[in-house]
Specification:
The chain is mainly beta. 13% of the residues lie in helices and 48% in strands. It has one helix and eight strands; from the N terminus they run ββββββββα. Strands 1-2-3-4-5-6-7-8 form an eight-stranded antiparallel β-barrel. The N and C termini lie far apart (64 Å).
Length: 141
């Protein structure tokens, strides 16, 4: 068998990176809604997504599908006691949309790739550089 199995290649689209993710869900809509944090991993390959993690409810497993052209992702979150359906749009800020526990519980969510330490340090340095550039008096060369 060929050691390079193209059927299991990870997704290369930059908005669907496999790896560590984080985010939150809410029971209400709007900026004042309480956010319940979650930490998990996702693997995107061949228009299927899978992974697992935990939140305030407990450990869970993800299974779902995604589309790189339509920029959407539909996942089911499986807990030991129940399932939650997530339907989201994808953009440079991650995956966001609505969740539902049938028949009548719903809320919002936002998920994004976790920044590694190196990325966070580069962003902090970029922020400091920008901050210092803004403070330079206009007559100084």
């Amino acid at each position: 068998m060929d050691p390079l199995d193209l059927n299991n290649a990870s997704e290369t689209h930059p908005l669907f990176p496999s790896g560590e993710w984080e985010g939150f869900y809410t029971h209400a809509q709007g900026p004042g809604a309480e956010q319940f944090k979650m930490y998990f991993s996702l693997n995107f390959a061949n228009n299927e997504v899978s992974g697992g993690g935990s939140d305030n409810i407990g450990p869970f497993v993800w299974k779902g599908i995604y589309d790189t052209e339509g920029l959407w992702c539909k996942m089911t979150k499986y807990y030991a006691t129940h399932t939650v359906f997530y339907d989201g749009n994808v953009d440079e800020n991650g995956i966001w949309g609505n969740w539902e526990i049938t028949p009548s519980m719903t809320g919002g969510f936002h998920l994004w790739p976790k920044k590694n330490e190196e990325t966070a340090q580069v962003e902090a340095v970029d922020s400091l550089v920008l901050e210092n550039l803004v403070r330079v008096p206009s007559g100084v060369q």
